Amino acid sequence: MKELKEIRLTVGRVSGVTGGADDTKEIKFKGRQIASYKSYHGDDRGTRYYIIYETEKGKYLLHASNWNRRQGEFSNKRYEVYDSLEEMKEEILDGLIYEAKEELGQDEASNKKKGEC
């Protein structure tokens, strides 16, 4: 496993009202980022952002942010911990899982190269 760092993430509900109260908390853990993906809403309303981390305990943490630009709409930041990358297939795009596997050396192309040596 590559070098791990302390990671701090904000999770919860962020107010879309000026001066509104957020309902968030900070989580922290040791790990490293292995994949990320950002998508923009078609009407330029906001952004969805996904990051996958490998944790010190060998698990995978998915941090998902859904940010809204519209006044009065909430933004959400959440996380979920998984035992394997395969478990998060229903939550995210296959390409993000592929990127994570590639970073970990688990993709098919890396395995073929290792077998050819």
Overview of the molecule:
- The chain is of the alpha+beta class and 117 residues long.
- It has one domain (5-116).
- The protein has helices spanning 94-104, 108-116; strands at residues 5-14, 23-40, 46-55, 60-68, 75-82.
- The protein has a five-stranded antiparallel β-barrel with strand order 1-2-3-4-5.
- Strand 3 (46-55) and strand 4 form a beta hairpin.
- The longest helix has 11 residues, at 94-104.
- The radius of gyration is 17 Å and the shape is globular.
Spans of at least 5 consecutive residues whose pLDDT stays below 50 are 112-117
Tell me, rounded to a whole number, the average pLDDT.
Answer: 84
How large is the share of residues in beta strands?
Answer: over 45%
- The number of distinct β-strands equals 5
Query: What is the gyration radius calculated from CA atoms?
Result: 17 Å
- Ends distance: 22 Å
Summarize the helix and strand pattern as letters. EEEEEHH
Structural class: alpha+beta
Side-by-side strand order of the widest sheet:
1-2-3-4-5
Number of helices: 2
Q: How many independent structural domains?
A: 1
Largest sheet: 5 strands, antiparallel, barrel
Q: Tell me, briefly, the overall form.
A: globular
Label this structure with key terms.
5 strands; disordered C terminus; 2 helices; 117 residues; 47% strand; alpha+beta
Summarize the structure.
By secondary structure, the protein is of the alpha+beta class.
List strands and helices in order, with pairings.
Layout: E1 5-14, E2 23-40, E3 46-55, E4 60-68, E5 75-82, H1 94-104, H2 108-116
Antiparallel strand pairs: 1-2, 1-5, 2-3, 3-4, 4-5
